[in-house]
Structure formats: C-alpha cells, structure tokens
Amino acid sequence: MTMTTSPQSEFTRGMKECSPMLIGLLPWALILGVQGGQKGMSWLEMLMMTSMNFAGGSEFAAVNLWAHPLPVLLIATVTFMINSRHILMGAALAPYLKDMPLKKVMPALFFMCDETWAMGLAEAQKRKAQGLPAFNMPYYAGTCAVMYLCWACFAALGAAVGPMFDDVAAWGFGMAFPAVFLVLMRGMWKGFAAARPWLVSLVTAAVTYLSADGAWYVPAGALAGLLSAYYWGERK
Predict the structure, then answer these.
(1) Which of 22, 54, 78, 144 is found 20 to 30 A from 180 (Cα to Cα)?
(2) What pLDDT does 112 receive?
C-alpha cells in the first residue's frame, strides 16, 4: 500500500476483500427475510427495517419476537442490548476517526456492522504501523457498500418469497452466521484473558435461557458482557 493509491482503487479493494464474507451472509439474509415474510412482514417492511437498523442480530431478535399483541418493550430492550456492542465498537474506532469531520464520521458509524468494523479497524491498524493516515475511508466505504446493499436486498427478497417455504431453520443455514463471527473473532484474538467478558456473557445467557421464559437471555448476556468488560478494563 502506498500514498499514491486513488480513492477509487481503495474503494474497489474494500469491495473485493469484503466479498468472500457474502458466502456466509447472503443465506443468512435470506433466512431473515423468509422468517419475516412468514410472520406477515412485506418485502418493503423488511427492506426498511434492514436499511434503518443495519444490525443483523437485533433484526433476527425482532422478527423472532414478532407476535400479536406486539411485545414492544421486550423488542425495544432486546434490540438496544444487542446493539449496545456498537458503543464499544465505535469507541475502538474513535482514535482513528478523531481528526475527521463529523459529516464523515456519522455516516461511517451508521454503516458500521461487525464485519465492516473488523475490516476497517484492521486496515487502520495496518496503516498506522506503516506511518500512513490511519483511517482509510474509501476502503471502509467499499466494505460498507457491499455489506449494506446485499444484506438489505437479499433480506427483502427473502420476505417476498417467505410464504412459499416451510421452516428454513431445518436447512442448516443457521451455521453460516456463527461461522463468520468465529473467523472475525480469530482475527482479533488476543488471548484468554481478553476473552473473559465473552465467557461471562455466554454463561449468563445460557443460565438465563434455561431458567427464564422469553428472550431475556439476550439482554442478560449482553449486559453481563459489558459489565465484565468494564470491570476487567478498569483493573488494567
């Protein structure tokens, strides 16, 4: 990488390097759409939800909790707790974004998801080590363009054809999303000590799932993970 690379070439590189993740994510977007369609959501409603709330985990939670009457408080709580990880993700990017104007920072944070965040952060760390301006906005925009457009469009497609299918969970596509997250986690692995909040979150969520009805295991696991990360972070 050199200083002579153009924004267009960096944008294209971001799209290319992000594209292999679509192998795992596109089936998952279709599953989200199909499940929403089977719950009565139209393709337009699915498109609006995935476009305005670009966070797959909370979207699945909202669809799975969809019922009549609508549990608004539970859906709002679960959505907030799942998306609260974006606070920590944004904080990790903040040192690389501090010199950028707000009109660029805000769109960058809006389009941030787990995959674009991980790739943008890795790119920033690599550039910093090379003595280059840390945050590569064209590269990051390329990753966001691929993830955002494909996720929203394929989810809408799934909602459109959803009523034509039976239970798609039986197809086994459910492993695609966890597989992508495991790959991302492997790239950010810094040892077992740094992973303790993940373990606390997992155990808390599992205990809550086995002992309480509903989806309260989601906010319980998220809150436990955040608190443990804060506690161990303060002790360093």
Answers:
(1) 78
(2) 93
What whole-number distance in Å separates Cα of residue 143 and Cα of residue 109? 13
End-to-end CA distance of the chain: 34
Element (H, E) at 4: none
For residue 214, CA distances in Å to 41, 217, 234 come to 21, 8, 33
**Domain total of the chain:** 2
Same domain, 95 and 121: yes
CA of 54: how far to CAs of 49, 105, 157, in Å?
8, 16, 16
Q: What is the pTM of this model?
A: 0.74
What is the maximum alpha-carbon separation in the chain? 58
Four-CA torsion 44, 46, 47, 49, nearest 10 degrees: 120
